[in-house]
Amino acid sequence: MINVLLVDDHTILRDGIRSLLELEKDIQVVGESVSGRDVLKKIEELHPDVILMDINMPEQNGIEVMAMVKRQYPAVKVIMLTMYNHDEYFISAIREGADGYLLKDAPSQQVVDAIRSVARGESVIHPSMTKKLLDFHIQKRDAPQRDELTEREKEVLHCLLEGLSNKEIAEKLFISDKTVKIHLSKIFKKLNVKSRSQAVIHTIQNQILPLQ
């Protein structure tokens, strides 16, 4: 069972998402919060696996709250569910470790699928936001050299750019799921990133691989 915490100051939205998730046998909403102030307390009490969090909330920005969550509870997955498709919000969220970024106009099934995906350790980014990465640049310190990645790691990284899951990468490269996880761990370390989505952003912005 995937335990979900809803963090949004709009009651009607929380009620809608709760009703949606109650239809799923493998997902349950364990709690709700209207602000970022008590999120850490809720995590301690309810032990959620995934948090759906808005950006624009009273008292504290959702991205700031998410950053605190990631520092204190790195195993908890966070999906930013927001109406904002601005570059600065998106990039900030990914840089702080968000596991997913969805817009509130996303289809209901996409939200459900995103919860399952991040619970499996994958990342989910709204398609319109992915396109923005190609024209956006972030200054990075200590950018790794391209030859730091092995040929196999570059193949795995290519698969990440294609949006493939661990299982799909394993099937495409004829390796085991465990081997994929090992490669991803090494890639994250070499690129100095924390997640699949951050690896994709870093690869595109620093032209680590030739883009198709």
TrEMBL record:
SMART domains, alphabetized: HTH_LUXR (SM00421), REC (SM00448)
PROSITE patterns named among the record's database cross-references: HTH_LUXR_2, RESPONSE_REGULATORY
Keywords: DNA-binding, Phosphoprotein, Transcription, Transcription regulation
Keyword Transcription annotated: yes
Modified residues annotated as 4-aspartylphosphate in this record: D54
Domain Response regulatory: 3-119
Record-linked InterPro entries: CheY-like_superfamily, NreC/VraR/RcsB-like_REC, Sig_transdc_resp-reg_C-effctor, Sig_transdc_resp-reg_receiver, Tscrpt_reg_LuxR_C, WalR-like
SUPFAM superfamilies to which the protein is assigned, alphabetical: C-terminal effector domain of the bipartite response regulators (SSF46894), CheY-like (SSF52172)
Residues in HTH luxR-type domain copies: 142-207
Identification of the protein by name: Response regulator
